[in-house]
Design goal:
With 447 residues, the protein is an alpha/beta fold. The protein has 3 domains: 2-110 and 297-356, Rossmann fold (3-Layer(aba) Sandwich); 112-243 and 366-393, Response regulator (Rossmann fold, 3-Layer(aba) Sandwich); 415-446, no CATH class. 29% of the residues lie in helices and 18% in strands. The chain is built from 12 helices and 17 strands. The longest helix has 21 residues, at 300-320. InterPro entries: ANF_lig-bd_rcpt, GPCR_3, GPCR_3_9-Cys_sf, GPCR_3_Ca_sens_rcpt-rel, Peripla_BP_I.
Length: 447
């Protein structure tokens, strides 16, 4: 965020003679951050409900963040009720696309609806019909599971196992159940800390030769591919935004690190932070303990989302202030709703990618299908396909070998399906009697 703001303020064309200011606070819990949020939407320290939009001039004209669906859903009603643009870089829940509930919510990452459609497309691509869906107990995963159940209707895909896991759950037991059911494709639609526990439990319990479909939140995780024994669990396919670099970002981080608290990265500093009471004082204690390398090596899928969120606000402000290449009209009083109107109309290029939004203020993004290559050192992420909403575009095969993950083997000619068990994709094959035929739209016997 700081990189984007400073880049914009140093630009002579986007907002000439105007500088962006900002205030950052640490979102440390869903319930203890309201003081900062209320401060942002207040005017001179007070909030007047139902004030006319033309008269409403809060402390800020736009907000970005927080990261995560649950955190965002907690505070979004307060921010969006007065049409303050909430340009978010890390909340994927499809609920937030409801403009009646969240009229000024904007996001720079795909919604869960797009991600789930992509996952289903991959499953159908390989003709798998028996899959497991593991998530965490939060808005992100529950929203994903709800959409998955909705969109697999009439696709022939059976959700053979599903579970929302807590951090203290018995991950080993869950994976053993899936293995016993002979399910070879596992969708892990969970936040990173849960996905990490699932993968580590799979390694520890010798779960082998599965296909793991990683949701956007951990598809490009930098630590898990380096876990000892990761190769034996099978193949990991991740879904991420098309990776884009930020020229100059690494140098910016290193320059900011020089002569700052990074130099105090020692055992005493760690001890001092850990000994503090876990209070929510809006100070980022642990920020001073991160090295420049820690920041640069974070998941690359997050960087551009934050970067484009700041540029979205700046481009909207460019329009509202009627800027040209030399100056902006600083005599114009900017209201939050003015920015929102301009955001809907935006269509600009940023580092080789077009940034624009649909009617729900969701971005139009192409996704990358990435294959974890854990047989090389260091592990690599190989882009094996691109998805633009209809099909995967790539001439190469996504997987070196395609495992079987169907409840039953398809019946041969002259045999019809006989339902077996709860799921429609589970059946036995029975020889067809004389004077009968098989309806191939359902593969069941007709007379």
């Amino acid at each position: 965020m700081r990189y984007a703001v400073e880049e914009i303020n140093n630009s002579t064309t986007l907002l000439p003679n105007v500088s962006l200011g900002y205030e950052i606070f640490d979102h440390c819990s869903n319930t203890r951050n309201f003081h900062s949020v209320l401060s942002f939407i207040s005017k001179n320290g007070s909030i007047r409900p139902k004030e006319k939009l033309n008269n409403y001039q809060p402390k800020v004209i736009a907000l970005t963040g927080p990261y995560g669906s649950s955190r965002t859903i907690t505070v979004a009603p307060l921010i969006t009720m007065d049409l303050i643009p909430m340009v978010n870089y890390g909340a994927a829940s499809y609920t937030l696309s409801n403009k009646l509930q969240y009229p000024s919510f904007v996001r720079t990452i795909p919604s869960n609806k797009d991600l789930i459609e992509m996952i289903i497309h991959i499953i159908r691509w390989f003709e798998w019909n028996s899959v497991a869906f593991l998530g965490s107990q939060d808005d992100y995963s529950s929203d994903g599971l709800k959409l998955f159940n909705k969109y697999i209707n009439n696709t022939g895909i059976c959700l053979a196992y599903q579970e929302g896991l807590s951090l203290n759950a018995n991950y080993s037991l869950t994976l053993k159940k899936i293995d016993k059911l002979n399910i070879n494709v596992i969708v892990v639609f969970a936040l990173t800390q849960y996905a990490s526990k699932i993968i580590k439990a799979a390694i520890a319990n010798n779960i082998q030769d599965k296909v793991w479909i990683a949701s956007h939140s951990w598809a490009m995780n930098q630590q898990l591919p380096r876990e000892p024994g990761i190769r034996k669990i099978g193949t990991v396919i991740g879904i991420a935004e098309r990776l884009l670099s930020l020229p100059g970002f690494n140098e910016f981080v290193y320059n900011k690190a020089k002569g700052t608290a990074y130099a105090g990265h020692n055992d005493k500093a760690v001890s001092d932070v850990q000994s503090k009471n876990e209070t929510c004082n809006q100070d980022c204690d642990y920020c001073s303990l991160m090295t420049a390398e820690d920041i640069i090596n974070e998941s690359p899928t997050h960087s551009f989302a934050v970067y484009s969120a700041i540029y979205t606000i700046a481009h909207a402000l460019h329009k509202v202030l009627q800027c040209d290449t030399n100056e902006c009209h600083k005599n114009i009083t900017v209201k939050p709703y003015m920015l929102l109107e301009e955001i809907k109309l935006l269509n600009f290029s940023l580092n080789g990618r077009q940034v624009k939004y649909d009617d729900n203020y969701d971005p139009t993004i192409r996704y990358a299908v990435v294959l974890w290559c854990t047989d090389v050192n260091p592990p690599q992420f190989k882009v094996v396909g691109m998805y633009g909403g209809s099909e995967i575009n790539n001439s190469t095969t996504l997987l070196p070998t395609v495992p079987f993950s169907n409840c039953s083997v398809e019946c041969k000619a002259g045999y019809s399906r006989q339902p077996e068990g709860f799921h429609s994709c589970c059946f036995t094959c029975k020889k067809c009697p004389c004077n009968s035929y098989v309806d191939f739209s359902s593969k069941y016997l007709r007379r």
